[in-house]
Amino acid sequence: MRKKIIAGNWKMNKTITEALDLVRALTLGLKDVKDVDIVVCPVFTALHSVHQAIDGSNIMLGAQNLFWEEKGAFTGEISAPMLKDTHCEYVIIGHSERRTIFKETNEQVNRKIKAALKAGLLPIVCVGERLEERENNRTFDVIKDHVHGALEGLSADNLANIIIAYEPVWAIGTGRTATPAQAQEVHAFIRGLIRDAFGADAGQRLRIQYGGSVTPENIASLSAQPDIDGALVGGASLKAESFIQLVKLSSST
Ligand code: 13P
User: Fold this and answer.
1) What percent of the chain has pLDDT over 70?
2) Sorting pLDDT into bands at 50, 70 and 90, what band is 120?
3) Domain spanning 4-251: which CATH class is it, in words?
4) Which numbered atom of ligand 1 lies nearest the CA of 215?
5) According to DSSP H, which parts of the chain are helical?
6) Euclidean distance between the first and final Cα of the chain, in Å?
7) Of ligand 1's atoms, which has the minimum distance to the CA of residue 96?
8) Whole-number mean pLDDT of the chain?
9) How far apart are alpha carbons 240 and 246 in whole angstroms?
10) Does the beta carbon of 42 sit less than 6 angstroms from any atom of ligand 1?
11) Is 33 exposed, middle or buried (0-12, 13-18, 19+ CB in 10 A)?
12) How far is the CA of 212 from the centre of ligand 1 (A)?
């Protein structure tokens, strides 16, 4: 049985003060939840303060990106060991906003995943098709390309420390969620790719989150699907009430 994992991707939102207000409410509201892994991913500047606020609670810390080198002349970048230094346990890699706006490639995503694993961080690897790709029946080709590109050179053991997030680009921030059936179809496909490449155990163990307009209204039907193991949540993770509700609804399924 795979434990569900709900992660809040705050994207470029919240000052330190705002972040602390939110996580204080979350630690109170979620303190009794045991059967779901709960992660918040604030901006870099809030990681240290948020860590102090959630330390000792059941909420874990994640970052939204990293650079693959450990240190050196890379102005503006943050490395995996630096994220460990702020007590991050997770890191989102290859989000569609990074692929689109910052032109991240599969190769770069792959290097970032390897750097994260080397530092002992658990990467949440994002994959997903754009609307025109879905409309042209290219969804499975794109997913295959993202998954194989991201995981190139990794071992079955590595897979035990990786989470994949299926985030159809057309569902992100649009209010247009994939239906549970649409999401399940792609999740099952991803699990099959992992099984083929890394063996039955790795496929069975892998946790696959869904992301894209997840709300308290749709989380239960999504997480009831056999291959959906939680969610990567944007907008609805920015308010304590909706994130608390969402985590609790995912745990009851
Ligand atoms: P929304 O939940 O706002 O659609 O964002 C999803 C997302 O991109 C999470 O990484």
Assistant:
1) 99
2) very high
3) alpha beta
4) 2
5) 16-29, 47-54, 80-85, 96-101, 106-119, 131-135, 139-151, 156-159, 180-198, 200-205, 219-223, 240-251
6) 13
7) 8
8) 97
9) 10
10) no
11) middle
12) 5
